[in-house]
Amino acid sequence: MATQLQIYKMAAAYMKSGATITSTSDNTAVVNALNLFWDFTRDWLLTQDIWRFAIKRVQLTTETTAPVFGWTYAKALPSDFLMPVKVIGDYPYLIEGSTLVSNTDTVDLIYIYNNHAVTDYPNWFAKLLALALAREAAMVVTQSDTVLQGLDQKFRMELNEARYVNSLMGYSDNLRIDGLDNIRSTGNIDMISGTFE
Fold first, then answer.
1. What is the rounded CA–CA span in Å between residue 60 and residue 7?
2. Taking the domains of the chain in order of start, what are their residue ranges?
3. Cβ(175)–Cβ(110) under 8 Å?
4. Cα(4)–Cα(23) distance, rounded to whole angstroms?
């Protein structure tokens, strides 16, 4: 399992920066750029598929202030919530900010959480995260469109491979994020803007 330092070293290598990184707190241009993009890139990448190491299940019962109209109940989402995967049961719901509203008093939720324990990441995800991080920091570090384009192309290919490896772990509960099944089968997504082609 990788560490954040190893991911930084891989990202620097992918950018062909020539930097020697000894710590994630090094005061260098490369490490400062990687630190700038770390939290955002990690959490964004965690939402790009139903990664098996980032799934949690919870029963939402904590009531917040009831909605003024349209729904009967409002439940506080977990503090580590990033994205819903599935609500168990056949009833409508809506995520509004940090709240899930529904007409059901108890909600069983499967969700992607912000798993910040880098040592939980499989090696294939650590590699993908290093590429995503390199892609984000490339213009700051290298100021090269060519490097950025190469990283973007490599990231897209590795993302498809990571999704395939992740899919081998099974899809119990018929887990899927609406729209991602189409992306997984066709690969038609613009990863920069997040738009479907």
1. 35
2. 4-51+116-196, 52-113
3. yes
4. 9
Residue 168 structure tokens: 């081998």
- Cα–Cα dist 131/161, whole Å: 13
- One DSSP character per residue, 93-155 reads EEEETTEEEES-SSEEEEEEE----GGGS-HHHHHHHHHHHHHHHHHHHT--HHHHHHHHHHH
The token pair at 196 is 């479907």
pLDDT digits (tens, 9 = 90+) for 85-143: 999 988 899 999 999 999 998 999 999 999 999 999 999 999 999 999 999 999 999 99
* Sign of CA pseudo-dihedral 126, 129, 134, 140: negative
Give the full edge-to-edge strand order of the sheet including 93-96.
Answer: 73-76, 99-102, 93-96
User: Which residue(s) pair with 95 in the sheet?
Assistant: 100
Torsional sign, CA 101, 106, 110, 113: positive
Give the model's confidence band at 172: pLDDT under 50 very low, under 70 low, under 90 confident, else very high.
low
At residue 177, the pLDDT reads 52
Q: How many CA atoms lie within 13 A of 58 on its CB side?
A: 18
pTM, entire model: 0.83
Per-residue pLDDT tens for 50-93?
Answer: 999 999 999 998 788 889 999 999 999 999 999 999 999 888 99
Determine which helix (DSSP H) or strand (DSSP E) holds 195, and give its type and residue range: strand 195-196
